[in-house]
Amino acid sequence: MAVYVLDKYNLAFTFLISLGWQALGFAIAFGLQIDTITDFWSAVNFFALALITLCLGGQYDGRNIAASTLVMIWAVRLGAWQLFRMLKMGGDKRFDEMRSKPLSLAGFWSLQLLWVWVVSLPAILLNSPATNIPSRGGIHLSFGTDKDIAGVILCGLGVLIEATADLQKYRFKCVTKALKGAIIDLGLWGWSRRPNYFGEILFWWGMYILCLSPAIDQRDSTTSASISHGGRAALIASVFSPLFTMVLLLFISGVPLAEKPTQEKYFLMSHGPDSDDGHNDLEPFGKWQRECDPWARMRAHRERTSLLLPLPPALYWPLPRFVKTWVLLDLPMYRFDEAKDGTKAIQAAERKKRAENNA
User: Fold this and answer.
1) Are the beta carbons of 25 and 109 closer than 8 angstroms?
2) How crowded is residue 315: how many other Cβ atoms within 10 Å of its Cβ?
3) How distant, in Å, are the alpha carbons of 1, 56, 190 from that of 8?
4) Crossing angle of helices 195-210 and 62-89, rounded to 10°
5) pLDDT per residue over 3-52, tens digit each?
6) Which terminus of the chain has a lower count of CB atoms within 10 Å, N or C?
7) For residues 195-224, b (16+ Cβ closer than 10 Å) or e, as one string?
8) Residue 354 burial by CB count (10 A; 0-12/13-18/19+): exposed, middle or buried?
9) What does the angle CA 283 – CA 196 – CA 109 come to, to the nearest 5 degrees?
10) Are 246 and 194 in contact, with CB atoms under 8 Å apart?
């Protein structure tokens, strides 16, 4: 039997659950001055929202079970991996300046709250009375539509790509211990510079498509009942889930924090204050990396390897710059520009080295 809590869309109580959970996480992180729990904590939040809304909805149709189970699988994988990674690393450098500042740390945890709740919306709404309980305006639509199949396939591919990319990167850094200056271009990383982010984006677009059938098909084939206007609008509006994922990864916390700083590191290996200490004399690595100069190696890797969408280098390299930038999203904001950014990077590195020498 379905349980109705606060509103028929499951929005209020799922937000309150997330608010309480993230507030507790903030209190623990700030009180103990730790950051190993951050991503794991949010993964538990994702898992809980999927499980609780499925159970309270009381409608164990194939679509509801598939969507909720896929979210829980994704959350378990993410949480276990991030907890392992944080324990292995001993912390997260993102929080070095934030850890002792309560307002900054609270801002981060607020963003975590928004991320979990908004991105969970397709599953939350699919499991809500408004979409699957006839007395509340929902319908029972048989599982197996073309959107169901496409959604499950995309979700499966997404979680597989994300998990594989994370494991390949861990193996490259911690198991094989590649030569200094080597760039990861093995496996999925040979076709994409950020395949883990691509996998996450793909998963949540798949989840949205999977949860969309009641809104698009609208009518129960056995009873001819149709979904309410509110339920249909809510499911369609859950497109904010994959869109928010893309905005977060492409413009806030994903690619911007990873791509340009990595390129800057290789530029400084060639031109920074330590560049005359033998750091720019690299050994060949793999099939492609033959450049001895670190910055030349990074530029070549950048030109032949897609940012997100996995593509063979032979296909990606000859594409026009316009296509790479505006279709495949290798935006100017991700690219370290030697002429524009080089001098500032060198000066900052020199100041840092002087401060370390004077410490």
Assistant:
1) yes
2) 11
3) 14, 11, 47
4) 160
5) 666 788 899 999 999 999 999 999 998 888 887 888 899 999 999 999 99
6) C
7) bbbbbbbbbbbbbbbbbbbbbebeebeeee
8) exposed
9) 120
10) no
